């Protein structure tokens, strides 16, 4: 094992519970005191096909996995065939002794254990987990506590099956307690959901589409408890139109989708812009174009998010770098969307959405977006009244004696359609003023992260899920890491400060053109090189280290 860290790969078929098994392993290692990150790889199949998860645990912050692992937990022969080359020297294989033809490692007789315990086939994972617990020398009582929390159904039977796996296993590589704090573990989708709730979410609409589908499932599971409405309409067009209708009525709504669904929403995105209806959009990125690779990752929707919709209108675009940032910026996006009455787009990729992270238990003081102009006390009410900030006071129907209009056409301050060139220009200027205020507010919120070795003169430029792996590379190789979190309005002043004294930089992105490098070039910054990966897979730590050697000489 690498010093102060351990990596575990779990593999099997779709339907074998690989993700849930990986999550339990992650929680076990978190309880030992490690920071963890889990990457889950699966094809776009309901059943069949090879699934695997890699859990990496280390004493410091991490957000990526290595290509080599210390344990392979194999539920079938295919896992061994595909991944045996990943096993570190001295690594351990734990496998189903009936399905895997191997005399090496630790064989677990799953069929016999399940038959004797009268357990269902899926509980075989519990026996494999039990075998791992002993092989890693994790205290059984500690592990049992984690298993009880992770297996709410059939708990006692699962524990018996896990103990049987433990008893037939043997001690191999010790995973020692670090003596450090235990951090909670959650996926990016769960963190986004919590952030939306903390931003006073009232309604969530989504048509299921990976990688954001689990936001829908998570919020639906807590809808009654949280007193929110979670609705799956018949199409992505209905999703955004229903959310905009809620905004008109004064209810805070958010929606989730991916690139294909967002394509269908772009006309209504323009409606949000011209009608000044606030909405938060979670745009989970995956490999395109079209259906592309439905269950794999990419950072290819940046230009799309910046320019989607006909005409010009203000918008907010944010790319969180891990679960903690996803939580903070989800609630902040809600605050800012409602203050400035515009669409806010959160732009995670699949690695953020479905990755499992350790995160700090607290979030800190809630960002306050400042006062939202309230009831003007003026009759008749003018929905698009002019102001120094460009923000008009909000009122919501029904209000006795008032008509509250919204309009997808060019309109005057009362919301009435017009084709007058003077009014057309004035209303465009009004919307642009909001962008000026939003940018000023954003500049005061640390919209650009500086990491790695902050005073280094060679920098890595990255965004979104590039955070963890680039931070790790930056610290090891002596690079500054510059990462814009807010991508629009582009925080030019904060970016200039972050790039101060940098002689040269290279970008790291999971797209085929270097979309962030292209964006910053509009502000006068030219990358010395680009490290791009666009096969749908994530960068791995050792892979990026090797790639960086060829870019920076």
Give structural notes.
- With 553 residues, the protein is α/β, with parallel strands linked by helices.
- The protein folds into 3 domains: 5-168, Pyruvate-ferredoxin oxidoreductase, PFOR, domain III (Pyruvate-ferredoxin Oxidoreductase, domain 3, 3-Layer(aba) Sandwich), CATH 3.40.920.10; 185-358, 3-Layer(aba) Sandwich (Rossmann fold); 448-551, 3-Layer(aba) Sandwich (Rossmann fold), CATH 3.40.50.
- 38% of the residues lie in helices and 19% in strands.
- It has 19 helices and 20 strands.
- The protein has helices spanning 18-32, 77-83, 110-117, 124-135, 140-150, 155-168, 188-198, 213-221, 223-226, 236-248, 259-275, 302-307, 323-340, 350-354, 421-443, 466-477, 492-498, 515-521, 541-551, and strands spanning 5-13, 35-41, 50-58, 69-74, 87-96, 106-108, 185-187, 203-206, 229-231, 253-258, 279-284, 316-318, 343-346, 356-358, 448-452, 458-461, 480-484, 486-488, 504-509, 529-532.
- It has an 8-stranded mixed beta sheet with strand order 6-5-4-1-3-2-14-7, sandwiched between helices.
- Strand 10 (253-258), helix 11 and strand 11 form a beta-alpha-beta unit.
- The longest helix is centred in the C-terminal third of the chain and has 23 residues, at 421-443.
- The chain is globular, with a radius of gyration of 25 Å.
- The two termini are 30 Å apart.
- The mean pLDDT is 93.
Keywords:
single chain, 553 residues, alpha/beta, Pyruvate-ferredoxin Oxidoreductase, domain 3, Rossmann fold, 3 domains, 8-stranded mixed β-sheet, 7-stranded mixed β-sheet, 19% strand
């Amino acid at each position: 094992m690498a010093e102060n860290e351990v990596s575990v790969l779990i593999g099997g078929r779709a339907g074998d519970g690989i993700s849930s098994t990986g999550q339990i392993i992650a929680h076990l290692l978190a309880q030992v005191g490690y920071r963890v990150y889990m990457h889950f790889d699966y094809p776009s199949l309901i059943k069949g096909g090879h699934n695997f998860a890699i859990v990496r645990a280390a004493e410091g912050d991490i957000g990526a996995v290595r290509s080599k692992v210390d344990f392979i937990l194999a539920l079938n022969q295919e896992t061994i065939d595909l991944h045996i080359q990943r096993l570190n020297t001295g690594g351990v294989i734990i496998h189903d002794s009936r399905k895997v033809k191997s005399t090496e490692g630790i064989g677990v007789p799953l069929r016999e254990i399940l038959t004797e315990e009268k357990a269902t086939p899926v509980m075989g994972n519990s026996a494999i987990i039990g075998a791992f617990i002993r092989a890693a020398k994790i205290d059984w009582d500690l592990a049992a506590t984690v298993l009880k929390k992770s297996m709410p159904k059939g708990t006692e039977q699962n524990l018996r099956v896990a103990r049987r796996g433990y008893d037939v296993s043997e001690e191999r590589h010790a995973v020692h307690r670090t003596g450090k704090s235990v951090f909670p573990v959650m996926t990016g989708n769960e963190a986004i959901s919590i952030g939306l709730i903390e931003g006073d979410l009232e309604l969530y609409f989504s048509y299921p589409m990976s990688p954001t589908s689990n936001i829908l499932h998570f919020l639906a599971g807590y809808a009654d408890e949280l007193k929110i409405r979670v609705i799956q309409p018949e199409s992505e067009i209905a999703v955004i139109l229903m959310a905009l209708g809620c905004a008109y009525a004064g209810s805070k709504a958010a929606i989730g989708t991916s690139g294909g669904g967002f394509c269908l929403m772009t006309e209504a995105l323009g409606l949000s812009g011209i009608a000044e209806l606030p909405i938060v959009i979670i745009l989970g990125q995956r490999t395109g174009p079209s259906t592309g690779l439905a269950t794999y990752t990419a950072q290819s929707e940046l230009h799309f998010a910046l320019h989607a919709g006909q005409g010009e209108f203000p918008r907010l675009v944010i790319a969180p770098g891990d679960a903690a940032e996803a939580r903070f910026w989800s609630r902040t996006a809600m605050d800012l969307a409602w203050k400035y009455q515009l669409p806010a787009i959160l732009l995670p990729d699949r690695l953020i959405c479905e990755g499992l992270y350790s995160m700090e238990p607290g979030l800190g003081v809630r960002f306050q977006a400042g006062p939202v102009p309230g009831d003007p006390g003026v009759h008749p009410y003018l929905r698009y009244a002019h102001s120094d900030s460009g923000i008009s006071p909000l009122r919501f129907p029904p209000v006795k004696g008032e008509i509250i209009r919204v309009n997808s056409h060019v309109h005057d301050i009362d919301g009435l359609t017009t084709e007058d060139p003077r009014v057309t220009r004035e209303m465009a200027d009004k919307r642009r003023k909001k962008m000026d205020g939003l940018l000023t507010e954003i500049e005061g919120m640390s919209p650009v992260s500086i990491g790695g070795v902050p005073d280094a003169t060679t920098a890595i430029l990255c965004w979104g899920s590039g955070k963890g792996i680039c931070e790790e590379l930056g610290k090891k190789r002596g690079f500054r890491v510059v990462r814009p979190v807010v991508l629009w309005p582009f925080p030019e002043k904060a970016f200039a400060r972050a790039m101060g004294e940098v002689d040269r930089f290279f970008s790291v992105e999971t797209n085929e053109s270097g979309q962030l490098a292209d964006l910053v070039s509009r502000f006068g910054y030219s990358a010395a090189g680009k490290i791009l990966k666009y096969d749908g897979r994530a960068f791995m730590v050792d892979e990026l280290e090797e790639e960086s050697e060829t870019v920076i000489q």
